[in-house]
Design goal:
Layout: E1 6-9, E2 13-18, E3 23-29, E4 52-55, E5 66-70, E6 76-80, E7 102-109, E8 114-123, E9 134-143, E10 146-155, E11 161-163, E12 166-172, E13 179-182, E14 186-188, E15 190-191, E16 195-196, E17 219-224, E18 229-232, E19 242-247, E20 251-256, E21 262-268, E22 284-286, E23 292-301
Antiparallel strand pairs: 1-2, 2-3, 4-12, 5-6, 7-8, 8-9, 9-10, 10-23, 11-22, 12-21, 13-18, 14-17, 15-16, 17-20, 18-19, 19-23, 20-21
Organism: Candidatus Anaerobiospirillum pullistercoris
GO biological process, one term: carbohydrate metabolic process
GO molecular function: carbohydrate binding; isomerase activity
Length: about 300
């Protein structure tokens, strides 16, 4: 955990960020309680013990840590990705979550009960893989009862590369009482290697299109057609019991080990192993002509 933690507060919320990985280590009402799991008093802490972090230049795993991409000359080339998982065995979620971000800007608007904080990441050494040179900005905004997070990336490399963005929040969660309800159309169950199978509208026990108590078992799959998710927590302190998350991203990963006290609901712009799909699964090729990609996430307590 970095010593230079960044604090952002308004009337409703307190947000604490560790520039190491731009990880949220606390987010909840100022009067008590956690929306995302808190690791304020854990030193050190692991990625699964924090409150959330950004995913870039693309989330999830990529089969064999590489993909094929057509070059400007029309030839197919193999793009090798660096192993970024905690154990160093595979590419996982890119480099944003284990890089040191820099403070960029702070702005305060008292009349609007709004505070904004921006971080930046200068990733110019191909940390995610050769050719992955980019600049990223991460903007946090507390406005009354809402947290908005905007992530943008500008590709600065000479050769094109595939990009996708995501946010990996860990909501504090009790499977015995808390319910989940989301606007989704289909899901793809996990297959061997923590990859995804084919999408199906028959979601069975993982159908969260209505308020649902989730099974207390390991889950790591992805939903399509995502258009918002609500978590109802009957024992949350205070009068507000519902947490609502929306995003510009059309996919939602759900991850939770059995018995854990969190539920990761991760809005992402792309599917698992999208780089190895024929249609690239929501990833965008950034190049000299198209350099910029942006996505947002919004968490509201009501």
């Amino acid at each position: 955990m970095s010593h230079n933690l960044l604090n952002l507060e308004n009337t409703f919320f307190r947000l604490v960020i560790d520039p190491n990985g731009a990880r949220i280590i606390h987010f909840g009402p100022r009067k008590g309680g956690n929306i995302l799991q808190s690791c304020l008093h854990k030193v050190p802490y692991t990625p699964d013990e924090c409150g959330g972090f950004p995913l870039l230049p693309m989330g999830n795993r990529v089969r064999n840590n590489c993909y094929q991409l057509q070059s400007a000359s029309g030839r197919m080339q193999t793009i090798n990705l660096n192993c970024t998982s905690p154990d160093g065995s595979e590419y996982l979620h890119g480099t944003g979550w284990n890089s040191e971000w820099l403070f960029d800007d702070l702005s305060v608007y008292p009349k609007e009960d709004m505070k904004n904080l921006s971080l930046k990441l200068l990733n110019k050494q191909g940390e995610a893989g050769k050719g992955y040179n980019f600049e990223a900005k991460l903007h946090f905004s507390l406005h009354r009862n809402t947290l908005t997070i905007v992530l943008s990336v500008k590709h600065t490399g000479s050769a094109s590369r595939l990009y996708g963005l995501g946010f990996h929040p860990y909501f504090e969660f009790d499977p015995q009482q808390d319910q989940v309800c989301a606007s989704v159309s289909a899901y793809a169950p996990e297959v061997e290697g923590h990859f995804s199978g084919e999408f199906t509208p028959n979601m069975g026990k993982w159908d969260i299109s209505h308020p649902t108590l989730l099974p207390d078992e390991f889950v790591n799959h992805i939903y399509s057609g995502f258009n918002g998710v609500e978590i109802y927590r009957p024992n949350f302190p205070g009068p507000s019991k519902k947490i609502f998350m929306t995003s510009s991203a059309p996919y939602l990963m759900m991850y939770r080990p059995k018995g854990s006290k969190f539920l990761a609901l991760e809005p992402q712009t792309h599917v698992v192993d999208a780089a190895n799909r024929a249609d690239k699964g929501g990833l965008v090729k950034l190049s000299k002509n198209i350099r910029y990609l942006e996505a947002f996430w919004r968490i509201e307590l009501y």
